Amino acid sequence: MTAVETTTDVRRSFWTGRSGLVVPALLVALGLFLVYGTVTMEVPPTATSPGPQVFPAIVAGGCFVVAALVALQILLRPEVVERGVDDDGRPVSGPVSNWRTLGITVGSVALFIALLDPLGWVLAGALLFWGVSIGLGSRRYVFDGAIALLVSSAVQIAFSAGLGLTLPGGLLAQVF
To answer: Which residues contact 60 (CB under 8 A, 6 or more apart)?
Structure first.
């Protein structure tokens, strides 16, 4: 009895497993957009320190740092998806996409945008966080809903008390 050995020695290019570099590129683009907006912002002379340019600058810096870390991780450890071989022993190729995750996440963002004014930040933000958690694969719906409501409420309090900014009140502002 002889064993048949099949090899799937496939020559891969440098870019194989590195398609995720799109994400750091988008983060750098967002960071550059924020830098441009911060630099060209018209700051009234009555603005107090630290001023309205500080928060966008921090977010832009965060975008650059996260982009660099994600790019470094992808370059050092590319994620090559092994899809097996077909009946003839040739490697199966083609794109690997998770359309369910993308659809649920984009749908959650679109729903958030549509419902922000009528529902207000607390409820619309909770729906956004809850939808994204489901899109990313969580199956603890009640727990995730409670955490999403807690996080959106904490953001509302942080913006109101900490920054003196008001987020849309929506339905809850009319009830209370």
So the answer is: 30, 31, 32, 34, 35, 38
